[in-house]
TrEMBL record:
InterPro entries: SRAP (IPR003738), SRAP-like (IPR036590). GO terms for biological process: protein-DNA covalent cross-linking repair; proteolysis. Belongs to the SOS response-associated peptidase family. The keyword Hydrolase applies. One of its GO terms (molecular function) is single-stranded DNA binding. Gene3D superfamilies: SOS response associated peptidase-like (3.90.1680.10). Its EC number is 3.4.-.-. The keyword Magnesium does not apply. This is Abasic site processing protein. Keywords: Covalent protein-DNA linkage, DNA damage, DNA-binding, Hydrolase, Lyase, Protease.
Length: 219
DNA sequence: CCAGACGTTGTT
DNA sequence: GTCTGG
DNA sequence: CCAGACGTTGTT
DNA sequence: GTCTGG
């Protein structure tokens, strides 16, 4: 599954990699739920890059705290769950990253790993977003979709975030594509041969920590 | 009909 | 808002 | 995801 | 144990 990731590339590097304009923001070695994530969101009106709050707060929520529980959505059921099915048709997004963390909890210990794609190139998670209008604030938030683990990740975990390649990204962001079966078919485990994994320090466990040493190979 | 949930992960 | 359960 | 709090009253 | 915050 996916509950922590990195975005350490500069804005310029990301714009070059995706051929799109991105807003200003800070790099992070430890992006955690509840924080702002860089996303490209589509709707019937427009497709736009911006910073969204990680942890989906549905428009109907009467308490924004529900977002703490909605950091991921299962690909297998995203087209049927009441909280997500409507968003699959109308509010899809990409969440921009260049690595993500996953913990292996064998034998009572928790060993974190960092996983990268295409020799540490930036990539995109598949996500859904929504806008919540509270009494005193409006929050635009998102969730990251998960699927079963590929061969690379199976050893440490049975789930992984959905990563979309360039072709799939176009379809995912196409507001005219509303066929839920077509969209759902994009939500597959990523090609393991294009990914790499290495252990990192447990210092990453705390969301308060955020510095370059977090992505160094440990041991 | 109204009330209440709406989610994932992992562990037992 | 929409679905499920009672 | 993990870490850290989880409570009230009253006083500074 | 469970919820909140980052």
């Amino acid at each position: 599954m996916c509950g922590r990731y990195t975005l350490v590339n500069s804005r310029e590097a990301l714009e070059k990699a995706f051929g799109a304009a991105f807003p200003e923001g800070n790099e992070s070695y430890n992006v955690a739920p509840s924080q702002k994530v860089l996303a490209v969101a589509s709707s019937t009106e427009q497709t736009k890059a911006g910073w969204l709050q990680w942890g989906l707060i549905p428009s109907w929520a009467d308490d924004k705290k529900i977002g703490h529980k909605m950091i991921n959505a299962r690909a297998e059921s995203v087209d049927t769950k009441p909280a997500f099915r409507h968003l699959l048709e109308r509010r899809r997004c990409l969440v921009i990253a260049d690595g993500f963390y996953e913990w292996d909890r064998e034998g009572g210990t928790k060993q974190p790993y960092r996983i990268t794609v295409d020799n540490e190139e930036p990539f995109a998670f598949a996500g859904l977003w929504d806008r919540w209008e509270g009494k005193e604030e409006t929050i635009t938030s998102c969730t990251i979709i998960t699927t079963e683990a590929n061969d690379l990740m199976q050893n440490i975990h049975h789930r992984m975030p959905v990563i979309l390649d360039e072709e799939a990204r176009k379809t995912w962001l196409d507001p005219h594509e509303t066929d839920k079966q077509v969209l759902k078919s994009l939500l597959q485990p990523f090609d393991a041969s294009r990914m790499a994994i290495y252990p990192v320090s447990t210092e990453v466990n705390s969301p308060k920590h955020n510095h370059a040493a977090l992505i160094e190979r440990k041991g």
